[in-house]
């Protein structure tokens, strides 16, 4: 049923990547010097690719919209990064990581890609440690691991609650090294607004210098987008304020298919919304579920304080429903379970849209261990809590501080209140095995592509994927394309295709400025977010989605006639930047709903109310929906569906069970 | 639109661009909730300004969770405001009182020119890192991660130094606009780890040279940087850098 | 300076110069305070004059004196240099700057405190050093040594001068309160196990030295010692 080719190499699953690497055509060093690659994005996916390609000898231009490449939103990842090192001797292996990821993704990802990811996962840790990334260690001097959801081994490497920061700073330093050597030209405070296509191939981009407002043309033999996720389509998410879909969306409009847009990850442990002024949501890392137990009162509308509710009146609903994985079930499962409890009236806090994440039991347990370490036998409860708090502080101190800062409550004393929030987007630009989109020469890496996580991403695997793509996959696969481009001279940017793309970009900016309506950009963004969260969020239904599509179309029309963008285009103008991004989010939002409506099944992060088991678990339909939905953009704002069939030859497809 | 009851007077630095002079401008805000973050309070101000047809205040921010290092406001005479160990985006209005007057200025340093309003150009930091804030290891060169045991204490110390978010508050608050805390944090992180040893003395020389070239001031050990650093980066890093610099210049044979 | 490059002209290099000269001055102050404290023996300055005589005639001390002056000049030169550079590093100042929230006032006022010290040094050198080295000390004591003690008694008869000395010793105290520990930090002599000792020594040294020096004019003026 596939009508698109994912270019997966032939052969045994376990040999595909090795064989590919040894047979891929190479570009000789003198040719590399004349080949230019544009990389948009300086997150884990972009920075690692830019540094590596420059090390290999290519001429690289790298773009980001922040004032420094170090500030890409990868910096915010807290919990950790997976790798099949089996350092803990708990039975981990490449196959097991592969298996967990496929199963975690609810059998909606491509076997060959995921296996490759598991294979290179170990190299990532080696590379990062060599760069001086200070990952957590044990007293013996070797690397430490923790557990993450959806797995039964400890394979997550971490640096306190700042793993993404440390990994990104590693990639950033590698990138800065190349910048210092003149091998990468870095363009900060630049936003990509168009892909330039010549003879069907991606040959450059149009970018706006955000300081001066100048529109610039940049040529590249190939273009790589590592521009991150689009969770901000929901307005409130754990993404950064500037995270956007614009680069991917502009590529989509130039012919790159957008795959599985409706697969959204709602993270179970975030700080709940506190008021309508809220501008973003803050994640409390999944790693907290190692030591925090989730519960709600057994009684409906219980208004007592957490501390006043006795043990036997608490419902540890995850432990109750999923005894095998308990608090460490995958995110989609944990989120839905929280929503279910709150919807049923058991929520806590003022808004009743929260559940407790309680560290008391484990604090006490750690305290006991510490006490016996220091020779105190039969310690009293107070001593245990005091010593245990120290352990918890060492493990999660920064997260607890952040919680206290935002809520004004002390999480060492009262349990945290948490609620699910939009966190990650599994969907993204469709790419083949080579990470190339459906536009030749246009690549996509990291969260911006759709490739490895199926319908649900397991914790600690986005960092892994971003770095796998950038350090170890793209540098090889892009060679296959570039080896055929060596005779192409740099195309001057006065080529009509550049002129035309620039006109398109300028046209949009001028239109936005000239609408001079009455409502701010944020106003529209909030309304879009509301529609998406209500109708295309944690659970979706046919009627809701149909309504949402209509609402979004109406919102789009209103946006283009009534948005108010102050200032001019020839200066630093954040409102104009936001307006462009929201315009794209509105179109994307519609596509997400269309995709969700098309997928008449529940899988992973996509939960259709019509398709659930009697116990309320997601009900997949492998017969009809074991495919990647890759949407092609059509004139106006219309979309045409292409299907890439998913074949499972090495894993037995089964209903996911975490019981 | 907002839900609170705090009334505030803001005095905000407005400056069109680097070529024009700026000035503090007064704004009155009502109905601010103590649960808002400082930047959400600015969102309210901007929404007001846009509605009134005025230009909103431009300020840097992105993650809004205290980790990207982008937010950078000098609030009532202190970088990131009155609370210790938080960034501007993590500062909440409950740290202020109803009726307060709050003065908000951009970071001020010759090496951080103002771009617009409260936004400054901190690319000098990137250039300092590009001068040597790395370990020269190409992708694919690495050995097994556990082949190099690192004492936990050392790894933890390196991590603490590496926790710097590059916000520039240290420079902003230092009476000399010195960047020693930022630079020493990176130098320390790598100097503490075995992987960083081969380039240790090269690195300290080239990074200090770049720091000087950028026009930062000289450290006089007032300790303001450490006190204001949202990530608690320690002055010990500066001592370590000073020590390494001496070793590099007077003991090691490497010159740059 | 081939191999050394910008060792001393870089920002850290300049700091070393400040630190080394500062430590040198600190050591000098110990000697100086030690010998001057001999007046507290209250023996009409006899022992003190022996000490002063030794200081004035021993060739090592005389040689050291040149180094001391050089050190002081370098310290001052570098201080001015640093202060100018640091001002340039922030051409536009803040409308509101709350330094007291994060640092001690005296650590931010080393230039001012130093300038006060400089003024003091000029007066002080004119009062004693110029007299003892150049214009000559008019009288001799019972042992036949030049009676510097008498000069001291005469100078410290003037209440204004005594007050000025005491005030300036306060500024010395603050200069050292920051400077002592700061010099260690500058030299990179920082160690979690010894930092407490350095801090303690810094405070004790600054207070004891300044009190000792301040007590001298006070004691003479009030007749506590004769
Ligand atoms: C709060 C939080 C915690 C997380 N924790 C974990 C975790 O513990 N483990 C894990 O594995 N994953 C985690 N994730 C997910 C993971 O961090 C991200 O998926 C991943 O870092 C994305 O990396 P990226 O390089 O694809 O994108 P990003 O890091 O978002 O980088 C995007 C880059 O693209 C640039 N860009 C975007 N648009 C444009 C444009 N139009 N023009 C120019 N430049 C543009 C940006 O400037 C930026 O440099 C977390 C995510 C969040 C939000
Ligand atoms: C007896 C006299 C003096 C002593 C013992 C002394 C001692 C010191 C010491 C130990 C330091 C710290 C150096 C460091 O941080 O590395 C210092 C700094 C300083 N001194 Fe002095 N000093 C004396 C006189 C002066 C004079 C006369 C001036 C000014 C003209 C001066 C100006 C400064 C300044 C500006 C600093 C700050 C620089 C810095 O901390 O880096 N000092 N002094
Ligand atoms: S040292 Fe602290 S204040 Fe300075 S840039 Fe780093 S985090 Fe910011
Ligand atoms: S906005 Fe990222 S640290 Fe404040």
TrEMBL record, chain A:
Compartments where located: Cell membrane
Coiled coil regions in record: none
Catalytic activity: a quinone + succinate = fumarate + a quinol
EC number: 1.3.5.1
Limits of the Fumarate reductase/succinate dehydrogenase flavoprotein-like C-terminal domain: 525-658
Gene Ontology terms for molecular function: electron transfer activity; flavin adenine dinucleotide binding; succinate dehydrogenase (quinone) activity
CC cofactor: FAD
Organism: Pedobacter psychrotolerans
Name of this chain's protein: succinate dehydrogenase
Top enzyme category: oxidoreductase
Record key words, sorted: Cell membrane, Electron transport, FAD, Flavoprotein, Membrane, Oxidoreductase, Transport
Record-annotated FAD-dependent oxidoreductase 2 FAD-binding domain positions: 37-463
Record-linked SUPFAM superfamilies: FAD/NAD(P)-binding domain, Succinate dehydrogenase/fumarate reductase flavoprotein C-terminal domain, Succinate dehydrogenase/fumarate reductase flavoprotein, catalytic domain
Catalytic machinery residues: 331 (proton acceptor)
Taxonomic path: Bacteria, Pseudomonadati, Bacteroidota, Sphingobacteriia, Sphingobacteriales
GO biological processes: anaerobic respiration
Domain of life: Bacteria
Family: Belongs to the FAD-dependent oxidoreductase 2 family. FRD/SDH subfamily.
Membrane topology category: Peripheral membrane protein
GO cellular component: plasma membrane
TrEMBL record, chain B:
Record-linked Pfam families: Fer2_3, Fer4_8
Origin: domain of life: Bacteria
MF-aspect GO terms: 2 iron, 2 sulfur cluster binding; electron transfer activity
GO biological process: aerobic respiration; respiratory electron transport chain
Residues covered by the 4Fe-4S ferredoxin-type domain: 155-185
Cofactor section: [3Fe-4S] cluster; [2Fe-2S] cluster
Listed PANTHER family: SUCCINATE DEHYDROGENASE, SUCCINATE DEHYDROGENASE IRON-SULFUR PROTEIN
Family statement drawn from the similarity comment of this UniProt entry: Belongs to the succinate dehydrogenase/fumarate reductase iron-sulfur protein family.
Protein name: Succinate dehydrogenase / fumarate reductase iron-sulfur subunit
Species per Swiss-Prot/TrEMBL record: Pedobacter psychrotolerans
TrEMBL record, chain C:
SUPFAM superfamilies on file: Fumarate reductase respiratory complex transmembrane subunits
Annotated TM spans: 16-39, 59-84, 105-125, 162-181, 202-224
Keywords, comma-separated and alphabetical: Membrane, Transmembrane, Transmembrane helix
Keyword rRNA-binding: no
Taxonomy, superkingdom: Bacteria
CDD domains, per database record: SQR_TypeB_2_TM (cd03498)
Cellular component terms (Gene Ontology): membrane
InterPro entries from the UniProt entry: Cytochrome_b-558, SQR/QFR_C/D
Protein name per Swiss-Prot or TrEMBL: Fumarate reductase
Gene designation: frdC
């Amino acid at each position: 049923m596939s009508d698109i080719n994912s270019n997966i190499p032939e052969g045994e699953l376990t040999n595909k990547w090795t064989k590919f690497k040894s047979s891929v055509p190479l570009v000789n060093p003198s040719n590399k010097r004349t080949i230019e690659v544009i990389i948009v994005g300086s997150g884990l996916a972009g920075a690692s690719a830019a540094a590596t390609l420059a090390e290999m000898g290519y001429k690289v231009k790298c773009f980001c919209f922040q004032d420094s490449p170090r500030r890409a939103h990868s910096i915010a990842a807290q919990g950790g990064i997976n790798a099949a090192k089996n350092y803990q001797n708990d039975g981990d292996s490449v196959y097991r990581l592969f298996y967990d990821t496929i199963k975690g993704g609810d059998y909606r990802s491509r076997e060959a890609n995921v296996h490759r990811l598991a294979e290179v996962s170990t190299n990532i840790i080696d590379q990062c440690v060599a760069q001086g990334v200070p990952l957590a260690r044990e007293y013996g001097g070797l690397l430490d691991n923790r557990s993450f959801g959806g797995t039964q081994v400890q394979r997550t490497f971490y640096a306190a609650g700042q793993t993404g920061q440390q990994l990104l700073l590693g990639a950033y330093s590698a990138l800065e090294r190349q910048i210092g050597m003149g091998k990468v030209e870095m363009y900060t405070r630049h936003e990509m607004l168009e892909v330039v296509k010549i003879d069907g191939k991606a040959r450059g981009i149009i970018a706006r210098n955000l300081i001066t407002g100048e529109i610039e043309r940049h040529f590249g033999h190939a273009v790589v987008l590592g521009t991150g996720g689009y969770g901000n389509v929901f307005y409130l998410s754990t993404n950064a304020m500037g995270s956007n879909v614009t680069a991917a969306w502009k590529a989509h409009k130039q012919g790159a298919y957008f795959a599985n847009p409706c697969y959204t990850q709602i993270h179970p442990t975030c700080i709940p919304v506190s008021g309508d002024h809220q501008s973003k949501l803050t994640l409390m890392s999944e790693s907290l579920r190692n030591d925090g137990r989730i519960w709600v009162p057994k009684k409906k509308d219980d208004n007592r304080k957490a501390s006043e509710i006795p043990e036997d009146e608490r419902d540890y609903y995850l432990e109750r429903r999923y005894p095998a994985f308990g608090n460490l079930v995958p995110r989609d499962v944990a989120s839905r379970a929280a929503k279910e409890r709150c919807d049923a009236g058991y929520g806590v806090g003022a808004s009743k849209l929260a559940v407790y994440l309680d560290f008391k039991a484990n604090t006490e347990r750690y305290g006991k261990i510490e006490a016996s370490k220091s020779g105190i036998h039969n310690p009293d409860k107070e001593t245990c809590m005091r010593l245990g708090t120290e352990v918890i502080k060492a493990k999660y101190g920064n997260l607890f501080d952040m919680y206290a800062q935002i809520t004004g409550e002390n999480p060492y004393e009262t349990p945290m209140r948490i609620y699910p929030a939009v966190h990650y987007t599994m969907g993204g630009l469709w790419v083949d095995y080579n990470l190339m989109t459906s536009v030749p020469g246009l690549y996509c890496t990291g969260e911006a592509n759709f490739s490895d996580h199926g319908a649900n991403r397991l914790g600690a695997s986005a960092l892994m994927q971003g770095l796998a793509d950038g350090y170890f996959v793209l540098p090889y696969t892009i060679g296959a394309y570039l080896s055929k481009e060596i005779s192409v001279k740099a195309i001057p940017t006065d080529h009509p295709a550049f002129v035309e793309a620039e006109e398109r970009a300028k046209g949009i900016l001028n239109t936005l400025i000239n609408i001079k309506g009455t409502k701010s950009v944020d106003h529209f963004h909030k309304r879009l977010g509301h529609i998406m969260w209500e109708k295309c969020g944690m659970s979706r239904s046919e009627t809701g989605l149909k309504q949402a599509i209509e609402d979004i179309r109406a919102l789009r029309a209103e946006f283009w006639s009534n948005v108010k963008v102050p200032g001019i285009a020839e200066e630093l103008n954040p409102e104009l930047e936001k307006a462009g991004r929201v315009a794209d989010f509105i179109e994307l939002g519609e596509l997400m709903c269309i995709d969700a409506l098309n997928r008449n099944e529940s899988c992973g992060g996509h939960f259709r109310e019509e398709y659930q088991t009697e116990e309320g678990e997601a009900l997949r339909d492998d017969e009809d929906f074991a495919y990647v939905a890759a949407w092609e953009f059509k004139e106006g704002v219309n979309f045409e569906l292409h299907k890439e069939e998913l074949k499972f030859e090495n894993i037995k497809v089964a209903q996911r069970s975490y019981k | 639109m907002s839900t609170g009851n705090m009334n505030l007077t803001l005095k905000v630095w407005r400056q069109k661009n680097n070529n024009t002079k700026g000035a503090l401008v007064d704004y009155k805000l009502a109905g601010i909730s103590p649960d808002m973050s400082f930047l959400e309070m600015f969102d309210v101000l901007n929404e007001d300004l846009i509605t009134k047809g005025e230009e909103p205040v431009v300020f840097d921010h992105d993650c809004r969770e205290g980790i990207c290092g982008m937010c950078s406001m000098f609030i009532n005479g202190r970088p990131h405001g009155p609370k210790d160990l938080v960034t501007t985006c993590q500062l909440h209005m409950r740290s202020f009182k109803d009726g307060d007057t709050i003065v908000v200025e951009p970071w001020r340093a010759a090496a951080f020119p103002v771009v617009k309003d409260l936004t400054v150009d901190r690319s000098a930091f990137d250039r300092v890192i590009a001068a040597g804030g790395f370990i020269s290891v190409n992708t694919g060169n690495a050995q097994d991660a556990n082949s190099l045991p690192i004492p936990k204490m050392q790894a933890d110390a390196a991590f603490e130094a590496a926790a710097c978010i590059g916000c520039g508050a240290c420079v902003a608050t230092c009476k000399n606009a010195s960047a020693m805390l930022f630079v020493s944090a990176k130098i320390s992180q790598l100097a503490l780890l075995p992987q960083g040893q081969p380039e240790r003395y090269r690195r300290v020389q080239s990074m200090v040279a770049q720091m000087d070239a950028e026009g930062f001031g000289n450290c006089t050990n007032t300790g303001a940087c450490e006190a204001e650093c949202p990530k608690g980066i320690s002055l010990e890093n500066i001592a370590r850098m000073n020590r390494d610099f001496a070793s590099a210049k007077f003991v090691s044979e490497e010159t740059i | 300076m081939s191999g050394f490059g910008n060792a001393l002209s870089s920002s850290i290099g300049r700091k070393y110069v400040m630190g080394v000269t500062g430590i040198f001055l600190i050591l000098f102050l110990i000697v100086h305070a030690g010998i001057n404290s001999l007046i507290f023996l209250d023996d009409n300055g006899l022992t003190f004059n022996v000490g002063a005589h030794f200081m004035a005639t021993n060739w090592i001390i005389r040689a050291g004196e040149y180094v001391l002056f050089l050190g002081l000049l370098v310290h001052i030169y570098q201080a001015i240099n640093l202060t100018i550079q640091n001002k340039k590093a922030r051409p536009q100042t803040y409308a509101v700057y709350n330094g007291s929230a994060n640092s001690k006032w005296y650590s931010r006022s080393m230039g001012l405190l130093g300038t006060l010290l400089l003024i003091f040094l000029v007066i002080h050198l004119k009062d004693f050093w110029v007299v003892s080295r150049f214009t000559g000390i008019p009288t001799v004591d019972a042992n036949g040594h030049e009676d510097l003690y008498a000069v001291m008694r005469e100078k410290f008869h003037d209440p204004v001068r005594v007050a000025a000395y005491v005030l300036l010793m306060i500024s010395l105290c603050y200069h050292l309160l920051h400077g002592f520990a700061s010099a260690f930090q500058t030299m990179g002599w920082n160690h979690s196990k010894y930092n407490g000792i350095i801090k303690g020594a810094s405070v004790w040294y600054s207070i004891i030295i300044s009190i000792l020096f301040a007590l001298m004019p006070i004691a003479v003026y009030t007749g506590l010692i004769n």
